[in-house]
Amino acid sequence: MNMECCAYCYAEDVSLQTCSKCHKRKYCSGDCQRKDWNKPGGQCHKFYCGKTGEYGRCFEIKPAGEKGFGLYAKRDFKKFEMIVAERRLLSYDDFKRNPNIFSNMPDSERDAFMNLAPSTGQFFEKFIMNGFGDEGNIFVHMSRVNHDCFANTSYAHIVDRDVQIMVAKKAIKAGEEITTSYEHLLYMSPSVRRSRLKRKYGICCERHCSICSNPTLDKQAEELNKAQREFLECLLEFSRKNTGKSELDRILKMGSDLREFYDEFEVQPSPYINLFNMLSMCCLIQNRKLDMARKFLDLSLENGNAFTGSDQEASAVTEALLLKKIVNGEMNFPTSAFKEMLSEIASSFIL
Fold it and tell me: To pair with 266 at 20 to 30 A between CA atoms, which of 31, 78, 275, 345?
């Protein structure tokens, strides 16, 4: 894609005007700028103006060897800095609801979609290879981001704006490829993860991935996966039985060990948030160590705020806010409900 294109409609080879506030985002017309400023339908640039990187100035699409094309940083990004905030171009759900949606899109948007990998693939293969989430959301820029099990970014869908953000989970240098993880490092064994990547995306992870191509890191990742599974299974047992004080102490120790694994692998913020929320639930179930529960929830909100820029924007963070009201005595919640919630969350992560 030409780096000189409209940020809203992706039209190329046209005269562009720059946002007068951030002096970065470019548009082919005032109409495109107005549509992009608010929701629905745009990036909601009113909120993200000056807070996120912009295509052409901060990151670019360029060849990535055997992987085809990829997204590369054009400047340094700090940890937790927002790289891109992007509206979806199209989703598979959109297409199912309205089969004519693609043919009714502007030529520039259809071209952007068809330029995605595989270059010779059929229409529906584009969704399989490039879609995010169960809805198969397609993005002009984020759908170019290649996989790495030790990815340097995390992403989240901001529901109230219908925008997806991608955030650096560690410092990224100018010229470095921007990557994300297509499959769960924490919740899936290495062999299953590699098999799924090969089957769905044609990715040979042992050749390109910074973990799978390194036997030492690969072994450590396997140990992380084992520790994660043992912790979740212990939580399930804790939620289903009347357990004693020693069992809570054991869970807190396992949670502490797991956090060290997370730190070592620089995992994205959402597992930290889920970990702290689940540990606080265990304290609430036994009505013990409530000061520790408060500390866990403060850490959960701290991670949520660092990642999204607002502690109101992620479901796990909303859960932490609710738990904090309960632990502070502002709300009543029966123990049975805590056990059911803990069981449901732990079960959802065991793949």
Answer: 345
**Structure pTM?**
0.86
Tell me the CA distances in angstroms from 14 to 2, 79, 110, one per residue in order.
Answer: 11, 35, 17
Give the span between the Cα atoms of 308 and 143, in whole angstroms. Answer: 20
* Amino acid 306: pLDDT: 73
DSSP string, 170-190: S-B-TTPEEEE-SS-SSSS-H
Encoding tokens for residue 239?
């939620």
pLDDT one-digit tens code per residue, 325-343: 999 989 888 888 889 989 9
237 to 146, 159, 234, 240: CA distances (angstroms): 38, 33, 5, 5
- DSSP helix/strand/coil, 235: helix
3-state secondary structure of 156: strand
Q: What is the DSSP string of 185-199?
A: SSSS-HHHHHHHHHH
d(C-alpha 193, C-alpha 54), whole Å: 32
Q: Region 203-219: what's the mean pLDDT?
A: 91
Closest CA to 3 of 62, 76, 88, 83: 62
Dihedral (Cα; 91, 92, 96, 101), 10-degree rounding: 40
Q: What is the 3-state secondary structure (H, E, C) of 301-335?
A: HHHHHHHHCCCCCCHHHHHHHHHHHHHCCCCCCCH
